[in-house]
Each structure stands twice: as C-alpha cells, then as structure tokens.
Amino acid sequence: MQTIKRRNSLNKVQDGFQNVDLMEDVLTSSDSNMTPTINVAENDSQFTIDIGVFGMTKENYSIQILNNSLLVEAKKGEDFFARTFTIPEWVNNDEIVAKTENGMLTIVLPKDADTLKQFRRIDIV
Hints:
Layout (H helix, E strand, L loop, with lengths): L2 E2 L4 H9 L7 E4 L8 E6 L3 E7 L8 E6 L2 E8 L2 E8 L10 E5 L2 E7 L2 H4 L9
Antiparallel strand pairs: 1-2, 2-7, 3-4, 4-9, 5-6, 6-7, 8-9
C-alpha cells in the first residue's frame, strides 16, 4: 500500500515562488523497508540530491524523469525504496547527471540559465 503526501493548492503556489520546498519528495511508499538518508541542496547554478543507502551500487538504482517528476528507485534483494521529486521548470532536464560513490547516490540538476533570466525582483514601495 502506498501513502501519497498531497499538497494543497496554496503550497503549490508557494512552491512556485520559494526555493525551500521545490525539491520536496512527494511520494513515499509505506511498503518500503529501506529508509535512505536524503539531502537536497541548492545553489545559484544547480540543485543536488544526495541519497545514502549503505551497500547500494549503481546497478541497484533506477532513475527516471517524466515531465517535472524525477523518480528514484533502489532494490537490493528484498530491500527497496522509491521517491519522486518535483522538478522546477527552470531545471535543464537534458543536463541531469547522477553518480554513485561509497553507497551515496548524487543527482545534479542544473538550472537553465535562460529561464532564470526571466525572473526579476519586484521592489515593494
């Protein structure tokens, strides 16, 4: 059985303007018997997702992207987990890369510079 964490429409509007919750995972499986450590970081040029699961190799992971969703799954024997992340429109999907090292999966999501140029700060008078 899967548990879906739903966001209300206000959160969706806020997510469009605040970088804090943009990469929040939105799907968690209650059947999952593995709880990975997940860290999401952002700087001016990219988002980085680090997922740590002891004993995992790149052969254990599957990463898929569809529209603005990034699905990360891992399975080793009977152990598995799945997470879906919402990707902001200003991420360059064609440039997303992933690597594993010492049980840590790192996914780098570069921001699209052309899209970011369209944002501008509005002064409050």
